Amino acid sequence: MTEEMEKIEEIYCLNREQIRSYLIGLLNEHETDDYSLEGLKKVVRGTPYLMVAYIVNDDCIQESPNIYKDHINEAKQGMNRRAFLRYISTKRDRFFLSDPYYNETSGKIYVLLYEEHEDKMLFFNFDIKAVIQHLGLWDRA
């Protein structure tokens, strides 16, 4: 895992803006003001490489369940997500993209794309290796 993580981090650092633009473009294809459970299910199901999404309120409390492509996990609803704010250190616009991190639950390496909307924070976790491979960056490294 360490070698793979190092390779992903290297590729990511060299191509961060391209990756960021690509992921924002994927989400913009589904741009909606419908942050209901059904609305977010459509976004997750229709967005390649998006593994999980959820909504957090201004008090950093997760107000939606974790929404996956094939199921919903309500266990995290109501959790304090303040710890994730450490990944969101600067905001240039309404989107912020984290550095890659290992997700113990899935065993994959994700990046967190955060999108801010008025009184909501949308968190989208993407499989960064799959994104890098799709963009043809894996073989160039």
Shape: globular
What is the residue-mean pLDDT, rounded to a whole number?
88
Oligomer: single chain
- Please provide the count of β strands: 7
Give the end-to-end Cα distance, rounded to a whole number of Å: 17 Å
| Main sheet specs | 7 strands, antiparallel
The total count of helices amounts to 3
Q: Structural class of the secondary structure composition?
A: alpha+beta
Indicate the low-confidence ranges by residue numbers: none
* Amount of beta strand: 25-35%
How much helicity do the residues have? 25-40%
Give the H and E element order: HHEEEEEEEH
Backbone CA Rg: 15 Å
Would you spell out the secondary-structure blueprint of this structure?
Layout: H1 2-28, H2 37-46, E1 50-57, E2 66-68, E3 72-73, E4 95-97, E5 101-103, E6 108-117, E7 120-127, H3 128-134
Antiparallel strand pairs: 1-2, 1-7, 2-3, 4-6, 5-6, 6-7
Helix pairs in contact: 1-3
TL;DR of this structure?
With 141 residues, the chain is an alpha+beta fold. Helix content is 31%, strand content 26%.
Kindly describe this structure.
This protein has 141 residues and is an alpha+beta fold. 31% of the residues lie in helices and 26% in strands. It has three helices and seven strands; from the N terminus they run ααβββββββα. Strands 1, 2, 3, 4, 5, 6 and 7 form a seven-stranded antiparallel beta sheet that branches. A hairpin with a 4-residue loop joins strand 5 and strand 6 (108-117). Helix 1 (2-28) packs across helix 3 (128-134). It starts with a helix and ends in a 7-residue tail after the last helix. The model has no long low-confidence stretch (mean pLDDT 88).
